[in-house]
Amino acid sequence: MASSARRAISRHVTAALLSLAAMLAADPVLAQAAGPAASAAPAAALKLDTVTVQRSDIQQTVEAAGKLQLRKWADTYAQIGGQVKEVSVAIGDTVQADQALLEISPAQQAAKVESNRAQMARLQAELADQRAQHDFAQLQFKRQTQLKAQNATREEAFESARMNASSASARLDAITAQIHELEATLKIDEEARQKTLVKAPIAGTVVSLAVRKGQMLGAAQTAAPLLRIADLSEMTVAARVAESDVTRLRPGMAASFTTPGYPGKRWSGKLRQVIPVPADDTGEQGKQAFYIVLFEVKNQDHELMSGMSAQVQFVVAQARDALLLPANCLGAPDESGQYKVNVLDAGQRVSSRKVKVGLQNSQQAQILSGLVAGDKVLVGPVPAGLAAPAAFEAGAKPAVASGS
User: Which one of 7-11, 366-370, 381-385 scores highest in mean pLDDT?
Assistant: First the structure.
């Protein structure tokens, strides 16, 4: 019985103490009258959630999704029809400029080329013979001209010599014209022979191949690219930026991105161009418009590949060594654009302050005035009994009585 009585008395005493603590916490006047010992108990029992104002760097960014694209590339075409005789490269091979990639056997028969050459030899022989006849006709006409001046020849003989000279000259011109025409044909044949070798227009890597050995290339197929060669040392990132954010972007801004293929690794570049027309018919029928924003990134190790997805970040503004406060500590701004925060001092009293904010992002805010490094800002509402007097809330020091 004695033990039960003691336990009952203990419970009554504990309940009385808890009731007293609650009353003191609810009424600061009673807490002051009860003395320091009584007021310390509830304050010590409270666990306050605070964050400390610190100095660090902050960035204001625009986020966007993007894709990697080839920066510099060139297609190769067949300039003549025929059968593909040899393909000397494969996808992924590295080639140099002017390197032979494939050979085509032209559809034009080699016998025709030889026939043109034989005809050229015949015309050259005819030209030599005609020159001799031309020279003889000119000599005869000259002699008849001298005889006519001496009235020592008939008019018929003179006219015949003149006609023979003119005819020989005409035949000489005709053969010369035929030779020139055949020379042009032979030049075309030689150029066609040189076009049987398809060469690389630039140095790079073969990224596509649309031809195989033995394939016949007709006149229509020569307009289609056979190979694509790309310089993979530099890639282009094409980001889709919403219309609400694209107006904040300018050429030269810092840009960076990550890609799922390389977790934790980030590549950087500088914004090159904003395409001024909506992408993929966006912005129609009341839909939000998106714009393509381009920037380049170095890819010396060829880690990045065309078509990879990228999570892009453009740096709109940034500040170094700034006072920072978590963004969730700020509520709504007042009419002047300032925010009200509660600061916990060393005496466990809370005072409200107005702060001016600069750059903001989803995690942090730059504090321009109202706080200093090391201030502890209360997260959430102020607990009862911890609010400072009005003088402290206004940021003023308590008045000191004269003579103190």
Answer: 366-370
